């Protein structure tokens, strides 16, 4: 009979593997009922934590690497803050790696982190052609990206977010809203949701993809040129910085917002909402995403046999402001 795994305990107790990990590591508030169910499952199955890993505890670095596309984006800056906080609560320190949206730099950081024997990696990058993740020999958790087979992904409900944004623009009177995103591919749930709503209302979907590695100045110029050549009465931007570029273009060209152009962004990072409180945006639960990623990484560091790779998406909400 095979040795019981962490996911076996979770299934027996009727909870997630991250909850089991939190009970075993006594981290955070959990109800007495949940603790009892996990304890009963551990006893019933005869589960034992990975003793080899525990014997090497003195050799652990207590370092975790976080790889992001750019800390200049408020979303990733806030994400890094919350990941660092959640790691600190667990006795870990964070190494922040800004790959500047380039796959070559991301590969180098991945090699660097493994070479320095970090205990695990959390990655929230955009590049789709980084092969190193599939060869990595340490626990990795992804945030909002599918990195490689067997690497778990923590994400918010991007499909619902896309539906909320597109339906909101149409409900406010837009009949030719466009979607501006970094890349347009089958895995882009926000773009797919936008197309779904447009088809439902018998409207023509139009998507502009500017490319993740496009420098900010060229990105702004490309967006302004595209909006000038493609008349629209609404913009659904895949992030709040892009929404602000659309807002600035409207100001430059004399278009009134929201009378002539309605704008909805995405992410809802706290710093940007303070700077532009009137921006309509879909807010992601950034702190919860960070905490869940850390919990899942700690579970994988405690049990290398863990195979759960998909978590339920976290809810998003539409925050309406004067831009729509």
Rg calculated over all Cα atoms: 22 Å
SSE sequence, one letter per element: HHHHEHEHEHEEHEHEHEHEHEHE
CATH class of the largest domain: Alpha Beta
How many strands appear in the DSSP assignment?
A: 11
* Assembly context of the chains: single chain
Approximately how much helix is present in the residues?
40-55%
The unreliable regions are 51-58
Named CATH architecture of the largest domain: 3-Layer(aba) Sandwich
Strand order of the largest sheet: 7-6-8-9-10-11
Structural class: alpha/beta
Per CATH, the superfamily of the largest domain is Response regulator
Domain tally: 3
Distance between the termini: 60 Å
Number of DSSP helical runs? 13
Largest sheet: 6 strands, mixed
Mean pLDDT: 89
What do we call the CATH topology of the largest domain? Answer: Rossmann fold
Question: What are the salient characteristics of this protein?
Answer:
Rossmann fold, alpha/beta, 324 residues, 434 Repressor (Amino-terminal Domain)
Question: What can be said about this structure in brief?
Answer:
With 324 residues, the protein is of the alpha/beta class.
Molecular structure report:
By secondary structure, the chain is α/β, with parallel strands linked by helices. The protein has 3 domains: 43 residues, Orthogonal Bundle (434 Repressor (Amino-terminal Domain)); 123 residues, Rossmann fold (3-Layer(aba) Sandwich), CATH 3.40.50.2300; 126 residues, 3-Layer(aba) Sandwich (Rossmann fold). The chain contains 13 helices and 11 strands. Helix 1 crosses helix 3, helix 2 crosses helix 13 and helix 5 crosses helix 13.
